[in-house]
Amino acid sequence: MTDMQKDQVKLIKPDVALTDDAIQKTVLALQTLLADEHVLYMKLRNYHWNVTGPNFITLHELFEEQYTALADTIDDIAERIRSYGVRAIGTLKEMQEYARLDETPGALPPARDMVADLVSDHETLMRHLRAAANDMGEVGNMGEEDLFIGLLQDHQKKAWLLRAHLEG
Prior knowledge:
mainly alpha; Ferritin; 6 helices
């Protein structure tokens, strides 16, 4: 046994009344969502720190409100992954490997482009969440189907709040 193996925590497989295939699909969907939410969280933090212009205060506060709420969502997703007896991804490298959302390192767009980018990310997540909810329905995982539907509704509202800044 290597030192690395000795240092590993032995995870106990829970009996959650789902097939191994259903658990595998569930965990993959959750890990991917965890990574996407982290990318969005960091993008919101970045934009919060760097937004400028006549709508500075409004957008600065809106971005903070959204990333603060996302922190709780991220924690909930990671805990749900752990409830399946699996280690939640937790490094930036893993987040980048799983994430479907993109970043543009070093870019500092104008405030309006920040908002449009965030709307696009929320809408992308909505599409992924809708597909994930359907997948969970197919494998009989009502708990995660419910989670994905709730997050879909949450991202829809966040996108609307941001989109309102682009209208008019």
